[in-house]
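Notebook entry, structure prediction.
Reason for the run: the old model in the group folder had no record of what sequence produced it. Starting over properly, with the input documented here first.
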Amino acid sequence: MSYCQDCGKYMCQSCEKVHKNSKLDSNHKVVAMSDVLSGKVPLERRRKCKKHPNDDEEYFCTKCREYICSKCGMVRHLQAGHQIEEATIHEENLKENIKKLQDRAKSKKTTIENHIDFIKTQRNEITNMMRRLNDDIDKTYEEYMQLLSARREALKCQVKRLSEKFEKELQTMEEESRQTVSHVNAMEELVTNGMKVPLEKDALFAHDTLCENLKSFLERDDPDNQSLKGVVERAQEISFRTEAKVNELRLGELRDYTWDVKADVELLVKGSMTCTTRAPDGKMAVGSCEGGIHLYSPDGELQQTVLKDVRVWGIEFLSDGQSVVRDTGNNISLYTPQWGELDVTFETMGNNKGGYGGFTVDRDDNIYVGYWDSKKIQVFTKQGGKAVMEILCDGYEPLQLVSFHTTRKLILTELSSVVCLNGQGKKEKVLMKEGVCAFPAVCRDDSVIVAWVKYSEGLQKCDKEDKKLGIGFEVLRDKN
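New structure, fully documented this time:
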């Protein structure tokens, strides 16, 4: 709060009170620090030496960091090996150093302020980019809505034309039937009226003719209900099928190309992992040949271990959330979403006869079981029993099986070969590379990415086969 110019000491409020009450210090010049900092009271640059009251403290000891008089400097400081310098020189050096620090502080503040301005600029840039993203999303949404509205109107117009066509056919049938009823009524009335008057000669002959005509008309076949049913059956054959499931209708996606490791997780039993797949709830399911399926969260946290007694070779999930598990004995079992085993039996081949192999399910929940020894694939439905189809692999060993998303096509691999099979199991195309192993994956648009791996060197490159380009392949990545 205060400064004593005689003592050269800074004091708090309590010390200042004691200082003023001291007889030795009562005549000292004490000033408020607020007055000093505001420049209202200038400090005296030189004080009298306490040991030599007639001498000013004109020197500064760099060792003791204090002002001294010449006598103190000669007696105490120089003899002790301290370095002393004139007070004016020390103050000039101090001012110069402070000036340098002020200049550096000013430059640093300018740099930081420029950085703050740059942050504002970048913030505006990001805000504009995010606004453009929102605009693109809104624009795409509106375009989709317009397309969907136009498509809806076109489909409804088509339904209206079909309705009018069938209505016209039914109207014609109804009018013909009503005309027939009217004709019968007229003939019946004429015949009935003939009984109300005496009939003879020509009148009797005419009445007999009417009766014969009515009799002949009544003996005709009844209306053909089959024709009517045929119209209905043709109408029933018309159905509406969506081109994509509702949950697959996507406006687009935001892509973040920054990859980072979220978690590095050690398995419960090292060296036992046989398969991994994504569970319907977003978890990662890891199968173990030592027994069990371990379910991990997207952050790598172990959530649950199920089927601990099952030595798992492969696991897949059906569209209703049920899971299909292939064990190391090639037995196939079906489980509920809560991992309760269902009473379904699949007549598969044992591993001693067929060997192991690929395992997958397609979009229709058909289950494909590959056998590398017998070089074939069995296809089962979720109802179990015998295979509904067997696919001979033309000499290839189906080590891996991958199904397409929108068709019943199938990819199988045999080390350095990638084979595409159609829905009937017929070979469509083959890709081969000597000396490397193929690991394929099917994208949402049914294009195929194949990683060619040379185990001694690691990943060599990825090829992408576009479904629109036939057998053409595009190199996506080299030695990365």
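Summary: The radius of gyration is 49 Å.
The old model has been moved to the deprecated folder.
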